[in-house]
Each structure stands twice: as structure tokens, then as C-alpha cells.
Design brief:
Helix content is 40%, strand content 2%. By secondary structure, the protein is mainly alpha-helical. The protein has a domain at 64-157: Cytochrome c-like domain (Cytochrome Bc1 Complex, Chain D, domain 2), CATH 1.10.760. The radius of gyration is 25 Å and the shape is elongated.
Length: 176
């Protein structure tokens, strides 16, 4: 039984913000040094972390969009967005069918013309009835979702002329 002592758990300690006689200002912990940023929390890349450049919403992604970005964006979209926006972005998700407010379709002209920074900003800060998702979704994943939204928009308004020639020939040959 001698080895079962909880000396570490029973030692003196302070609760957060508890008064202390140790320091002259009676604080139990030292205040943060002004201007110091925690490791990994600098977020100095305005384009990547805000979707803006010099205060204006950007129209370019902060990194090249590859297939794996779209796959990740689809996965995150289906988890966080499809409940309201549905899987193709028309705004007829399951919660809407249960009586919640209808979000706009991603396929209206206004949103098809909106810069990618608009979508990033809305996911980050929310808009109207939509809550913000900055705490739940990392900046990298928010950009992936925006890339997937752009892919959805293109898929719903694609013309045969948008398909590369070799693929177009394969598609038109299959229809005959």
C-alpha cells in the first residue's frame, strides 16, 4: 500500500485566476508578454487565413487545387454543409425539409459570380442564419470546401464544349 500514494495529485496548486501571495501583483500566473504569438498561431498569410487581400475578397485560391483537394472538400462538404445545402448545393438539405430556413442555391448567378473569398468568409464568419465554422473547420479544409463548391457549380452548368476534345469524342460516341 505504500506505493499507492498520490503525492502528485495532493500537492499544492492554484486554480486559474486565483489570488496568490507569491507575486507582488497577487496573480497566480504571469500575464502574456505583449506581442508574443503561440507557436503555430501566427496566421500571417492574409489570403490563406481570411480569404482577402488588402481588405478585398480574393478570386484566386491560395494554393493549387488538385484532385485530393477536391476529394477532401467533398468529404468536408458532405459532413458540414450538405445538411442545409444538400449534396449538390441547391439549398434543399435535410434540415430545410424539416422546416428550417432555406439557404440560397450555389447555382444562382450571384453566387456563381462571387469570388472564392466570399465563400471562405461566409464559412469562417457565418452569414444570416448560417453559423460560423471557424472553430470546427480548419482554414485548409475551408478552402477545400470552397474548391468543391466551385466544382459543384461547374458540374451543374457545364456544356459539352467545356469537356476536353478527347473526352467529348468518347462521350458523343457512347450516345450513338
Amino acid at each position: 500500500m505504500a506505493g499507492c500514494q498520490q503525492q502528485m495529485a495532493d500537492q499544492p496548486r492554484y486554480e486559474p485566476l486565483q489570488k496568490s501571495a507569491f507575486f507582488g501583483d497577487e496573480r497566480s500566473a504571469r500575464p502574456f508578454v505583449e506581442g508574443v504569438v503561440a507557436r503555430g498561431e501566427l496566421n500571417a498569410d492574409e489570403h490563406f487565413y481570411t480569404g482577402k487581400s488588402r481588405g478585398k475578397r480574393v478570386d484566386m485560391f491560395p494554393f493549387p487545387v488538385m484532385r485530393d483537394t477536391l476529394v477532401r472538400g467533398q468529404e468536408r462538404f458532405n459532413i458540414y454543409c450538405s445538411t442545409c445545402h444538400d449534396r449538390v448545393g441547391t439549398g434543399q438539405g435535410m434540415v430545410v425539409r424539416r422546416g428550417f430556413r432555406v439557404p440560397p442555391s450555389f447555382h444562382i448567378d450571384r453566387l456563381r459570380a462571387a469570388p472564392v473569398g466570399h465563400f471562405f468568409d461566409v464559412i469562417t464568419h457565418g452569414f444570416g442564419a448560417m453559423p460560423d465554422y471557424a472553430e470546427q473547420i480548419s482554414a485548409q479544409d475551408r478552402w477545400a470546401i470552397v474548391a468543391y463548391i466551385r466544382a459543384l457549380q461547374l458540374s451543374q452548368h457545364a456544356a459539352l464544349a467545356d469537356v476536353p476534345a478527347d473526352e467529348r469524342q468518347r462521350l458523343t460516341g457512347a450516345q450513338k
